[in-house]
Write a structure and sequence with these properties.
Blueprint (H helix, E strand, L loop, with lengths): L2 H17 L28 H24 L5 H22 L1 H4 L10 H13 L3 H4 L15 E2 L5 H10 L16 H13 L15 E2 L4 H10 L1
Antiparallel strand pairs: 1-2
Helix pairs in contact: 5-8, 7-8
The chain binds heme C (HEC).
The site of heme C has 25 residues, from helix 6, helix 7 and helix 8.
Length: about 230
């Protein structure tokens, strides 16, 4: 036997010790008595490589248990979770404080230039708004967005707010804050404003008690009546 073949047989022996595989051709020795509708079972040992992995996890778990539960008296999963949530919230607050212009709704002004309105129109389709409000904004699952009756308000800030935070719970209008950028939400709100007073093919009956824009004539009449 030269050195090379010794190495190979050493390697083979090592591999065999890791699998403890039963010699091929001698399956009869480890065949179990059961016969499951013609299916027979061999009583193979668990492969040592797998068992070692299992033993390692047991050792780690004991170490982990003592490490976590005995070394640090104050540790609890609930506290760790609460601490991480608090940290996350603090980071969000810090980000908001550092970028007030991104979160302040007081400074929102509707676009009225063609480019931004065209972008709003495009977003209305690509962001699936049309699925519930229809392409002409006449409304189906969601309300008609061309009339001046609003459930949640029809000025640009109210529209922005609805798109950002969604409608009333359970009504189907989700919050889009995480999927549509602030700029795009303003473009959508502006596009909706630009569609005020248009005549959709099948307008849904007006919903909501907030009237906006209030027609000037009505205001004048009210003043006169008083
Ligand atoms: C799954 C259906 C659905 C989708 C998609 C949807 N909406 Fe809505 N939307 C609704 C419903 C339902 C309401 C009514 C909410 C309520 O009653 O509180 C609503 C309400 C609104 C309102 C307020 C209307 C009012 O009278 O105050 C606006 C504005 C609006 N949606 C814009 C959008 C925009 C912009 C998109 C796309 C980014 C969109 N919606 C996508 C279903 C939808």
């Amino acid at each position: 036997m030269n050195k090379n073949s010794e190495n190979i047989s050493g390697w083979k022996r090592f591999m065999k010790s890791l699998t403890k595989a039963h010699e091929l051709g001698t399956e009869e020795d480890i065949m179990l008595d059961h016969d499951y509708d013609g299916i027979k079972e061999l009583d193979n040992v668990l492969p040592p490589w797998w068992l070692y992995g299992f033993y390692i996890t047991i050792i780690i778990s004991i170490f982990y248990y003592f490490q976590v539960f005995y070394n640090s008296e104050e540790y609890s999963q609930a506290e760790e979770y609460a601490a991480e949530v608090a940290q996350g919230k603090a980071e969000v607050e810090a980000y908001k404080a550092a970028n007030p212009e991104l979160f302040n709704t007081d400074n929102i002004v509707a676009f009225n230039d063609e480019e931004n309105l065209a972008k709003g129109k495009e977003l209305f389709t690509t962001k699936t708004c049309f699925a519930c409000h229809l392409n002409d904004l006449g409304g189906s699952i969601g309300p008609n967005l061309t009339d001046n009756s609003w459930i949640l308000g029809g000025d640009v800030k109210a529209l922005f707010n609805t798109i950002t935070n969604g409608g009333r719970p359970g009504k189907g209008m989700i919050a889009w804050e995480s999927t549509i950028t602030r700029e795009e939400r303003i473009q959508l709100a502006s596009y909706i404003i630009s569609m005020q007073g248009t005549s959709p093919a099948n307008p849904k009956t007006a919903e909501g008690d907030i009237i906006f824009p209030v027609e000037e004539v009505e205001v004048v009449e009210e003043v006169i009546e008083e």
